[in-house]
Amino acid sequence: MKVSLLKRGLNALLNALPENLTSTITRLAQQSVPEQSPSEWLLHRILVVLTILLIVSLPIGSLIKLSVLLPLAIVVIERRNRRQVYLKKVLRQWPSALDMVAMLMHSGLSFRAALHALQNIPNDLSAATEISRLHRLQQSGYSLHQAVDGLSHRIPHPWISLFAGAVLQAHQTGGALANTLKVQANQFRQQQLLEAEKRAQEVSVKLMLPLIFCFFPVTMLLILGPVFIGFTQGGVI
Fold this sequence. Notes:
mainly alpha, 0% strand, flat, Type II secretion system protein GspF domain-containing protein
């Protein structure tokens, strides 16, 4: 009950804030993993700040304060790392999700109907979930431009920007979006292959460091060690 009252108060506070600040808070809440409402995001941040201020102001030893603040810092870092892992997962699955949307549109569905069908298809693709989220936002009253803009802010990457631009351009001009998404999927998949080949080529270079500083000295010791011992004993073995 108290939490719901706090959320209502925060919602009223968000409505009273300037539009730019409210939109910033909304965007940050959408970018969180898992996604939060603006009031939940703001409540979480307020509780974190109040907790830090309370711990710092308590008349206790610095070691105790550090032992309490350290787990809190670990939680914050873990949440940030979780978002980075989620973003990498979405980008890795993005070409497959675009293929699914293009296939649905080639079957005769409109873009919005394809999003609705994608939402109902059982799959474990986080990228497909992000795309179908456009349909949920439109059902909630957002325009297509607002929904696509929200996706671009939630997943800040050039691939998402290209997808957003293609969707808006097709919506305005009535162009063939299915073919564009298919082309984008092939291009992005090709880029992923090139990046994988680049990382594979970098492995040999990265292996040079442990080879030089770990294996090479041991090998030289095994080869030259008996020779050195022979010299120190007055002869060559």
